[in-house]
Every structure is written in C-alpha cells, then in structure tokens.
C-alpha cells in the first residue's frame, strides 16, 4: 500500500487521525503479519468501546492494509460526509432491513478487489459486564462462506480506557495503553461449500467468537466466561434480523 496508491482523501484521513492516535495511545501491536497476505481478508475484532474503530483502523493501517469498515447507509447519505466516506472506500450497509442482504454484494466486491474488510461480529459493543465477547451475528460467517476469504481474528484490550461504554466516561489523557493482537485465520474449512443455513452460520459464528474470546484471554489473563447470550427478542424482530444480518 504505497502513499501514491492511497489517493488524496485517504491520505487526508491518515493525516487527520494517525497523529492523534499516536499521542493518545501507547500501543502494543502483535500479529501484524497475519494481515500482510495477498488478496481480500475479513478482519473480525471484538467490540469493547466506541473507540474501537480508531484503534483497529490504526492497527490495520500500520500493518500495511487499508481498513474498509461497514457503516450505516444513512450516514453515507449525509452531504459531504457521505462523499468523503465513499472516497475513503468505506462500505454502506442497510442494517436491520431486507436490503441488508443486498449489501453483501458490496462486501463480496470489496474482497474480490483485495480489500481488508473489518466486521464487528457482535454488531455493537459487548453487553457482557466485564467486556468479554458475546455471541455474534452471522454476517462475517455468511461473507466467509460466500467468498472463501480468510477470517482474521483481532483481539483488543485497552480501548475501554479511552471510552468506557459502562460509564460513558471519555479519557483524553495521552498514552493510554492499548493492546491489539491478530491471530491466524479461523479454521472454517469444515463448513466450506455448505449451504448457508441458520444452523451452519451460527456454528461458524460461534467458532469465530470463541477464537476471539480465547485470544482476548491471552491478553487479559484469567479464565474467560462462556459467550454472553443476548436477551431474547420477539419473534418478529428475530425474523427481521435474520433477513438483514450482514454485519
């Protein structure tokens, strides 16, 4: 990823964000070689904090890849902001509707072009009280099954010190320690070529989340709990989620 190939708007984003993150955080990066592979990759981080995208983007960029995040399609329709996001090669997704399935085509295209797509399998910051991973949504598994792209687990610990979702406390002090570790691709070979049924996708997603949980335990220490279960929702809401579960 050369400076010339980034283009103006991506270079602008780097100049705007990276100096801030360099001062704001004291970084321990490990496993960057897992991202330095040819072709498209699906990067799946755990989701601790609203600061996660900044930290994971910094990590992915320092590894030599350009991170392509999924964003709510409504944000891409905001004048100027949406145009810049498109120029920075971010990916709009219609969440929670039947149109979300159509967004899969954009993700497949990004991977076919050799992109590094970042998907938070949990879909939102974890609700587990100690910030361990919870059970994920099936979007990353669906994308992996459709493309065969490797799924790279990226465990993070430290962004919650920047912004703690449990207290809504933001810290602006410099050199907050953050640790990010990328592991080898999750072994999903047993499901290759399978029909993407609900059961298959949930099995794949659990395999992804357990790898993330165990990687996080190596950073934090201690024995991780079982994947946190989301509260049950009405049947109609679950049906809409199944139709729109891309991210």
Brief synopsis:
With 247 residues, this protein is α/β, with parallel strands linked by helices.
Classify the beta-strand content into a percent band: 15-25%
Order of strands, main sheet, comes to 1-9-6-2-5-3-4
Number of strands: 9
List the helices and strands in order: HEEHEHHEHEHEHEEEHH
Low-confidence stretches: 238-244
Report on this model:
It is built from nine helices and nine strands. With 247 residues, it is α/β, with parallel strands linked by helices. The strands form two sheets. The protein has a seven-stranded mixed sheet, sandwiched between helices. Helix 6 (139-147) crosses helix 8. The model is unreliable at 238-244 (pLDDT under 50).
Summarize the helices and strands and which ones pair or pack.
Elements: H1 3-24, E1 25-30, E2 41-45, H2 52-62, E3 67-72, H3 73-76, H4 81-87, E4 91-93, H5 100-112, E5 116-118, H6 139-147, E6 151-157, H7 159-162, E7 163-164, E8 169-170, E9 176-182, H8 198-220, H9 235-244
Parallel strand pairs: 1-9, 2-5, 2-6, 3-4, 3-5
Antiparallel strand pairs: 6-9, 7-8
Helix pairs in contact: 6-8
């Amino acid at each position: 990823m050369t400076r010339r190939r980034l283009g103006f708007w991506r270079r602008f984003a780097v100049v705007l964000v990276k100096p801030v993150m360099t001062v704001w955080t004291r970084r321990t990066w490990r496993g960057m070689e897992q991202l330095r592979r040819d072709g498209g990759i699906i990067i799946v981080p755990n989701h601790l904090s609203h600061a996660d995208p900044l930290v994971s983007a910094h990590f992915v960029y320092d590894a030599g890849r350009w991170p392509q995040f999924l964003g709510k399609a409504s944000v891409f329709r905001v004048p100027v902001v949406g145009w810049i996001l498109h120029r920075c090669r971010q990916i709009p997704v219609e969440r929670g509707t039947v149109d979300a399935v159509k967004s899969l085509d954009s993700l497949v295209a990004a991977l076919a072009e050799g992109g590094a797509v970042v998907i938070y399998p949990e879909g939102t910051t974890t609700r587990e009280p100690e910030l361990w991973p919870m059970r994920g949504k099936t979007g990353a598994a669906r994308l992996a099954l459709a493309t065969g792209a490797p799924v790279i687990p990226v465990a993070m610990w430290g962004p919650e010190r920047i912004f703690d979702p449990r207290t809504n406390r933001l810290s602006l002090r410099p050199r907050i320690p953050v640790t990010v570790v990328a592991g080898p691709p999750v072994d999903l070979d047993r499901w290759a070529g399978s029909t993407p049924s609900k059961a298959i996708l949930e099995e794949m997603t659990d395999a992804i989340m357990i790898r993330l949980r165990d990687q996080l335990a190596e950073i934090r220490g201690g024995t991780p709990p079982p994947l946190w279960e989301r509260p049950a929702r009405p049947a109609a809401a679950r049906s809409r989620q199944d139709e729109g579960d891309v991210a």
